[in-house]
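Researcher: Quick sanity check before group meeting.
Model: Go ahead. Protein one:
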Amino acid sequence: MASIGSFLAMIAAPVAKRVLTGLGVGVITYAGLDSALGVIQNAVINNLGGMSGDLANFFALAGGNQVIGITLGALAARVTMATLTRLGRLN
């Protein structure tokens, strides 16, 4: 029974180290890139707020709001995929 316990303890330490390292890198990467995306989103919204009413109506009629939403969504998806890929390489 003691040999099984020591064997499990010997295996658990490196596995736990890899998991915690991977999670730490992933969380830090995701938090940094999420913050950068938030800055971009706020800049776009602030710049759109400075438009005149007629131009804002034309922009909305042309589908500009959807374009911005799709573009920011694509950036967020790319960040997520890059983070997941990096985590896969660490293990």
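Researcher: Fine. The other one?
Model: Protein two, sequence then structure:
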Amino acid sequence: MLINILYNCGTEVDVKEYLIAIKQHRSECLEDFNKLAELQKISLEELRNWRKIIGMRNALVHDYLTIDSGLLQQVLAERHYQFLTDFLKKACQDLQND
């Protein structure tokens, strides 16, 4: 779909390079969290949560036209974002204590 839109708009973007860059960024981010789990700085449950967060971020940023609004409403209603806010608060506290 993205390729068709870019082609129809006459965009001079190298779609293959763009898609590789997205995948590489996602990969690097996941590698960082995998390393934190290996070092036992985060639990496997936290790693699973980060994978979900990274996936949601990528969908919101790169595939926003086809986001399932029902899923997004469910995430908000069930406060699935709470893990992220708790993690950030703890990280800020840890940084202040160092």
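Researcher: One line on it for the slide.
Model: Confidence is low (pLDDT under 50) at residues 1-13.
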